[in-house]
Amino acid sequence: MRNYLGEDSAESSCAADRGHRAHTGHAVTERIQCSVPFCERTTAANQQFTQWVCSEHWKGLPRQRRLAYNRAKKRWQATREEKDQIAADMLWKRLQQAAINRALGLKEGT
Asked: Which long-range contacts (CB under 8 A, 24 or more apart) does 32-40 make?
């Protein structure tokens, strides 16, 4: 078996690789890390998104903003119009930045 350095070894030296395979019998999948710096939470990578905010940081955002983003996202998924995609993307960027600012202790709007 090759370790994370690409060297042949009897056991993998990557703890995540060993632990995941020991419990599931499957190889480790690609992961996406939370967008907030220094947050170590991850989710499985898929084709739908490349950025993610974990539930701990997502819950800290104002509920009305989260609802507005979810409405815009659903509208874009229903219409597939470019203007709806742009609106959803803009709201996502604002929410993502707000989560980062909140985690870093910065005031809203900075």
From this structure: 35/96, 35/99, 35/100, 36/99, 36/100, 36/103, 37/100, 37/103, 37/104, 38/103, 39/103
